[in-house]
Amino acid sequence: MKYLYLFGYPLGHSISPAFQNAALRACGVRRVRYVKNPMPPDKFQEIILALRAPHCLGANITVPYKQTILPLLDEVSPLAREIGAVNTVVKRANRDGSVTLVGENTDAYGFMQALRARRVNPRGQRVAILGAGGAAAAAAYALAEAGAHEIILLNRTLARSIELADRLVQKFRRMGLAINDWDALGKTQLLVNATSVGMSPHPDASPLPPHVLLAPHAVVYDLVYNPPMTRFLREAQAQGARIVGGLEMLIYQGARAFELWTGKRAPVRIMRVSAARALEEMIRAADAGHKG
Ligand SMILES: NC(=O)c1ccc[n+]([C@@H]2O[C@H](COP(=O)([O-])OP(=O)(O)OC[C@H]3O[C@@H](n4cnc5c(N)ncnc54)[C@H](OP(=O)(O)O)[C@@H]3O)[C@@H](O)[C@H]2O)c1
Predict the structure, then answer these.
(1) Would you tell me how many other CB atoms lie within 10 Å of the CB of residue 263?
(2) Which residue spans of the chain are classified as CATH 3.40.50.10860?
(3) Closest by CA position to 36, among listed 67, 65, 66, 14
(4) Quick one: which of 4, 153, 223, 279 is 20 to 30 A from 250 by CA?
(5) What mean pLDDT is reported for the chain?
């Protein structure tokens, strides 16, 4: 048996095994399983040992190791280096029998693909991103690459927005950039929540200050996928915004990782059905836990 691992800590919330294993089955990939491999911080270094083991075919990396894994890998793709985060590790076999661990970032692809599927084109638009962590960086790079006219970064910790803006400005010199300009929210065509605010088990929280008025016809995109309908999305919809939830990004980032590991085309529809079912089951189990 060979394994694809999900490394992070804690991992109780993850639904990736459900849809990755469904994809492996659908593509006839036998004797390979995608499994959670939770590594607490004192075992972080063991991730590299586990990756080098012959029975490991590759991995996803999630919170809190997406950034700290970079210096431990043999190679990091240019995109993952620019974003400063790795969420996928591919093992490249060399002619001399050695193996190279290559860090990739499929979050940016997943982020953009979910927008494309909804026919949202950020070219020439003013967009705002709430957050400045790994997901915000992936979103910002994807939007800049797609030709956004201006990006406004809004984050609780100012230093992190400045650090991300500095990196963006070096690569996308002609794009407009602003930091913590909350007044601009009413004039942005696309607003993205890339913070963890509103995520289960705190679904009543919103990353927006109260009474923010959105631009008419704005698209509002929440990267949080549990719950599928966050307070942020609900309130935006009530103002007439078009909304995009985080589950599609999760599926597309997973689909790209699947293709990198297996060389096969990802069965996106099957992955979507399995992911939605796994999420429903997780929410039902959590509700039953609360009631019990
Ligand atoms: N749908 C998908 O496929 C997908 C993929 C990746 C991530 N995500 C989601 O995106 C979110 C962020 O992930 P990440 O990897 O970027 O995490 P991260 O690097 O830890 O960044 C977390 C971000 O959330 C902000 N934040 C956290 N608590 C906050 C609070 N109480 N008030 C205001 N801001 C707060 C942080 O602000 P500070 O800088 O001030 O701490 C930071 O900007 C998570 O919900 C994650 O599940 C979804």
Answers:
(1) 7
(2) 2-105+250-291
(3) 14
(4) 153
(5) 96
What token pair was written down for 17?
């095994």
Q: What's the pLDDT at 239?
A: 96
Residue 271: pLDDT band with limits 50, 70, 90: very high
Which residues make Cβ contacts (< 8 Å) with residue 251, sequence separation at least 6? 19, 110, 268, 271, 272, 275
- Whether 132 lines ligand 1, by a CB cut-off of 6 Å, is yes
The band of 13, judged by pLDDT with boundaries at 50, 70 and 90, is: confident
Give yes or no for residue 133 CB within 6 A of ligand 1: yes
Atom of ligand 1 nearest to the CA of 249: 3
Would residue 66 show up in a list of annotated catalytic residues for this protein?
yes
Task: For the domain covering 2-105+250-291, report its CATH number.
Answer: 3.40.50.10860
Single out the catalytic residue among 2, 36, 43, 66. Answer: 66
Residue 290 above 80 pLDDT? no
